[in-house]
Amino acid sequence: MLRRLVQALLAVAATGAFAQECDGVQVWLNPGMFSYHFREGDYRQDNYGLGAEVILAPAHGLVAGNFINSNRERSHYAGYHWRPLQWQPGFEVRTGLIFVLIDGYSNTNHGDWFPAVFPTLSVEHRVLGANLIFLPGSRNGAALALQLKLRVW
Questions:
Q1: Which among 105, 84, 104 has a CA at the least distance from the CA of 96?
Q2: Stretch 16-44: mean pLDDT, rounded?
Q3: What angle do CA 24, 147, 49 make, to 5 degrees?
Q4: How far apart are alpha carbons 58 and 113 in whole angstroms?
Q5: C-alpha 64: how far from its chain's center?
Q6: CATH entry 2.40.160.20 includes domain 2-151
Q7: From the CB of residue 82, how many other CB atoms can be counted at a distance below 10 Å?
Q8: In the chain, domain spans
Q9: Phi, psi dihedral angles at 19 (to 5 degrees)
Q10: CA distance 76 to 113
Q11: Can you tell me the mean pLDDT for 94-113?
């Protein structure tokens, strides 16, 4: 299933009109994320892992990675980051949605892959950046995740 998602995303990226937008590809790496859960519980909040975000055009990116989730289980994710709204108050601010497939939550789909959509806010300046991701109500309740990132290309 993950292979099919990656193939579909690459097929979209290879289309002529989309490829013309891709003049400034960027690659960002992240060490996972920190999460804050709005519901009481014994949730892991330092969700370390390794992730990559490839920005193909200012409003379009691909994401993939893994992390130790809030249930203390290893999760993997892959998806598309759509960031259509932009402000530039001295640094780049973008907002949009991230569409992902994710696994590793034994309390959701028995740990198998499932789709999810999350609102995001990205802030980037030169080689440093951050993604703020709102995780709406799930079995663990709503949460806010902060993902710090470093631009490597």
A1: 84
A2: 82
A3: 100
A4: 28
A5: 7
A6: yes
A7: 17
A8: 2-151
A9: -60, -30
A10: 9
A11: 94
